[in-house]
């Protein structure tokens, strides 16, 4: 079930790499695993490990305190490649609530919205400024406020609008998928059907 998202304040982990594809986010060989066990353990599995299969301490997600961060900063075209929804499952199961970047793969972007992960598009220069700030102040926090549709960056980097589809935004705010959101309009749907049949009696034959 999708977790509702209204406002999240967190440290930010900057993930390096332009065109980070879904196979880097979660390698395809793990997609057969039972998700009940959690896909978070497979997040960036291969790129966060060295040749011996051990966690690389230099990889940002492996550094002290990073495991508690719920916001990622990524580079251009994050989530490109295949349509695997497992990439978003891995983020969700790891605890990631929002991803900030200049651009995202289209299918990844839509999968994120459907699973309650907020993809925040910011201009390249703002993302680079945030990355520079985080390099100097690794404990700096960012606030993603979906209720107010804005993201507040640390220091003097300002506040920027979050622009996502209105229906998707409402679903995420309420923690409902598209079908569950439709059910919230059941009384209106029933009323419409009753009125429609009353005015077009032949529909009920």
Strand and helix map with partners:
Elements: E1 7-14, H1 22-25, E2 71-73, H2 86-94, E3 98-101, H3 106-114, E4 118-121, H4 124-136, E5 141-145, E6 150-152, E7 159-161, H5 166-174, H6 178-183, H7 186-199
Parallel strand pairs: 1-2, 2-3, 3-4
Antiparallel strand pairs: 1-5, 5-6, 6-7
Subunit structure: Heterodimer of LeuC and LeuD.
Family: Belongs to the LeuD family. LeuD type 1 subfamily.
EC number: 4.2.1.33
Q: Which strand order does the major sheet show?
A: 4-3-2-1-5-6-7
CATH topology of the largest domain: Aconitase, domain 4
Q: At the first level of CATH, what is the class of the largest domain?
A: Alpha Beta
Helix content: 25-40%
The arrangement of helices and strands along the chain is: EHEHEHEHEEEHHH
Report the mean per-residue pLDDT as an integer.
93
Strand content is 5-15%
User: What is the overall shape?
Assistant: globular
Number of β-strand runs: 7
Per CATH, the architecture of the largest domain is Alpha-Beta Barrel
Query: Helices and strands: which structural class?
Result: alpha/beta
Instruction: Compute the separation of the termini in Å.
Output: 39 Å
**Biggest sheet statistics:** 7 strands, mixed
Could you characterize what this model shows?
- The chain has 205 residues and is an alpha/beta fold.
- It folds into 2 domains: 7-174, Aconitase, domain 4, CATH 3.20.19.10; 177-205, no CATH class.
- Helix content is 31%, strand content 15%.
- The protein contains 7 helices and 7 strands.
- It has helices at 22-25, 86-94, 106-114, 124-136, 166-174, 178-183, 186-199, and strands at 7-14, 71-73, 98-101, 118-121, 141-145, 150-152, 159-161.
- Strands 4-3-2-1-5-6-7 form a 7-stranded mixed beta sheet.
- It is globular and about 70 Å long.
- The model has no long low-confidence stretch (mean pLDDT 93).
- Its EC number is 4.2.1.33.
- Belongs to the LeuD family. LeuD type 1 subfamily.
- Heterodimer of LeuC and LeuD.
- One of its GO terms (molecular function) is 3-isopropylmalate dehydratase activity.
């Amino acid at each position: 079930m999708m977790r509702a998202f209204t406002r999240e304040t967190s440290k930010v982990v900057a993930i390096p790499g332009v065109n980070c594809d879904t196979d880097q986010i979660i390698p395809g060989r793990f997609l057969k695993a039972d998700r009940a066990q959690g896909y978070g353990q497979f997040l960036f599995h291969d790129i966060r490990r060295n040749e011996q299969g051990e966690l690389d301490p230099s990889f940002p997600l492996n550094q002290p305190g990073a495991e508690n961060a719920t916001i990622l900063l990524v580079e251009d075209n994050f989530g490109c490649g295949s349509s695997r929804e497992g990439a978003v499952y891995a983020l969700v199961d790891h605890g990631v609530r929002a991803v900030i970047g200049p651009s995202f793969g289209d299918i990844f972007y839509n999968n994120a919205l459907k699973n309650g992960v907020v993809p925040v598009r910011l201009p390249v220069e703002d993302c680079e400024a945030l990355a520079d700030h985080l390099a100097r102040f690794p404990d700096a926090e960012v606030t993603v406020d979906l209720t107010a549709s804005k993201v507040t960056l640390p220091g003097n980097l300002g506040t920027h609008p979050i622009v996502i589809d209105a229906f998707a935004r409402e679903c995420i705010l309420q923690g409902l998928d598209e079908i569950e959101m439709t059910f919230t309009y059941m009384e209106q749907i029933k009323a419409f059907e009753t009125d429609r049949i009353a005015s077009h009696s032949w529909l009920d034959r």
